[in-house]
Amino acid sequence: MIHFYKHNLKKNKNYLKKALNSLYLTSGPISENVERLISERFNKKYCYLTNSWTNGLISILMSINLKKDDEVIVPACTFVACANVVEMVGGKVVFADIDEKTKLLDVEDCIKKITKKTKVIMPVHLYGNLFDSRKLKKKIATKKKIFIIEDCAHTFYGLYPNYKPLGYYSDFAVFSFYATKNITCGEGGAIISNHKNLMEKIKSISNNGMTKPAFKRFVKKKYVPWDVKQVGFKANLSDVNASLLEEQVINYSKLRNNRKKIFDQYIKAFKNINDIFFPKSSFVNRDFHLFPIGVNEKYRDKLIEYLLKKNIFVTVNYKSITQLNYYKNKYKIKKNTFPKSEKWSKQTLSLPFHQKLEKKDINFISKVITGFFNK
Ligand SMILES: Cc1ncc(COP(=O)(O)O)c(C=O)c1O
Hints:
Strand content: 5-15%
Bound molecules: pyridoxal-5'-phosphate
Oligomer: single chain
Structural class: alpha/beta
CATH superfamily of the largest domain: Type I PLP-dependent aspartate aminotransferase-like (Major domain)
Shape: globular
Helix content: 25-40%
């Protein structure tokens, strides 16, 4: 059986020891240390760990007071959480199509969708392929303040040709540490930003609106009282989860390079299969999270079935959000309104992709796919 994903955590490492030996199981010094490591890595002033990407996004949208009628532009073909967070806060989702080659948000279509009500644009570095936030930022430079929030759930590395890192051209960049992600602690996320006041607000919103988290309530043996100035909920990450992150954050370059090696092996093994195609890499210095391929839509579901029968686990990333019933009905979206997203979501399937995938697994997958098309 070839699994779709496997995590990199090692059974013989006692990651939790530090957390279990400390007073705080909830957010505390271990989380703070991981936050420091992440903000240094991306050269950002602030980092805040959350218990998921989703809850991090909800905290951000609450911090900027996203209201009914405020519009958030989201790529039509991405994970549904990108639209759900807008709905949860009561804003309006505006979809933009994807670029035919890269399968990332189409900047030109996104610009066409901007109105007076646009408050946020949320590009996604889908599959680890780096979206051109630099171009987007330049294009909206003359518009009223629009927040750019980068969805980095699929990436922890990316350099633009001018060597500016992921997160450089946005107001917020948000990572996911969900079970299948390149760095994981089961469930978790992180926000990076240079916005001091908003990040303070986000921390408070993520902690039931309280002005002080538990581990900041006692300073020099004195109790520091807390207040609530805005409503909040629970989105902070515990030190138990954060203890799993430290080593992965420190060693990420190695993890990324291993993933690149596996990605390159796939490309090499598939070079003679004419019936499949791949999203185009937008930049060289990108990350590698999933391995999606495209096939003619008339074969896609049959190929999925065939691979599963051969014990090769595959999935679809993603069905266009615009074709999911809730969104289709609520926003009255007709078929073919987002032609590129809809087409790609019928053509794509993602193959197993993780650190423990071996060359022999890739060669086997290649053989099975070749066999499918030669049938
Ligand atoms: C592109 C994308 N955005 C957002 C999310 C949500 O992340 P989380 O599960 O940490 O809330 C995911 C998770 O799968 C994702 O793939």
